[in-house]
Design brief:
With 215 residues, the chain is α+β, with helices and mostly antiparallel strands. Helix content is 30%, strand content 28%. It has one domain: Glutamine Phosphoribosylpyrophosphate, subunit 1, domain 1 (4-Layer Sandwich), CATH 3.60.20.10.
């Protein structure tokens, strides 16, 4: 009961994930990213160690598809898992367990993958990729456009409750890490509003971390 999009910006090398679901606190369970390594979404009755394991394997030089398959099957009940990654070169890997819930599907572009489960239609991931590729701006803008495109195409079968946006940009900590843990009305709109508030101050907060005397 989740749909998400994972991507690398070809111009900047930034990596990120945007995800939405009908369950609570998706940002605490599904998106993972490491600068210079990759970005991961792990969903559909997920295990919280799958995402970190994918990143560890990528960091050790394992190819994206091999890393996803190895991580998904390293923990019990891989048949329930759905995982996707984009690595720092734009390589894509995807895993769909045999018991992945309801209509589940994926679509890919250059350095981007969208996927979901319990979808209204298998056209949702393709609509997400189309919206992502048609949008200009920062990676965050494009990822959020992807989520909006997925929702417009039907989204998942249950009403959304939470959403998250995670982007890394060269530092060992996220540049953007925004979460709507519960919003029974419109979590994607709330996440978009959070991004609009975060965007003009994100650079300042990063500077405070790396060189606080300069501002």
């Amino acid at each position: 009961m989740t749909f998400s999009i994972v991507a690398r910006c070809a111009e900047t090398g930034r990596l990120g994930v945007a995800v939405a679901t009908a369950s609570l606190a998706v940002g605490g369970r599904c998106p993972y990213a490491m600068s210079g390594v990759g970005a991961v979404t792990t969903q559909n009755r997920t295990h919280p160690m799958i995402g970190p394991r994918v990143l560890e394997l990528l960091r050790d030089g394992v190819a994206a598809q091999d890393a996803v398959e190895a991580a998904a099957t390293a923990f019990p009940f891989p048949e329930w898992r759905q995982v996707a990654v984009v690595d720092f070169k734009g390589g894509v890997g995807v895993f769909h367990g045999a018991d992945c819930s309801g209509v589940h599907a994926e679509a890919r572009g250059a350095g981007v993958v969208a996927l979901g489960n319990l979808l209204q239609t298998d056209a949702v991931p393709g609509a997400m990729i189309a919206a992502f590729e048609a949008t200009v701006g920062m990676l965050e803008d494009r990822l959020l456009a992807g989520l909006a495109g997925g929702l417009a195409a039907g989204g998942e079968v249950n009403p959304l409750q939470s959403a998250a946006l995670l982007v890394v940009d060269g530092d060992p900590f996220p540049f953007t890490n925004l979460r709507v843990d519960w919003d029974g009305a419109a979590p994607l709109e709330t996440l978009q509003a959070l991004w609009q508030k975060w965007r003009p101050v994100a650079g300042t907060y990063r500077t405070w971390a790396v060189d606080p005397s300069s501002v």
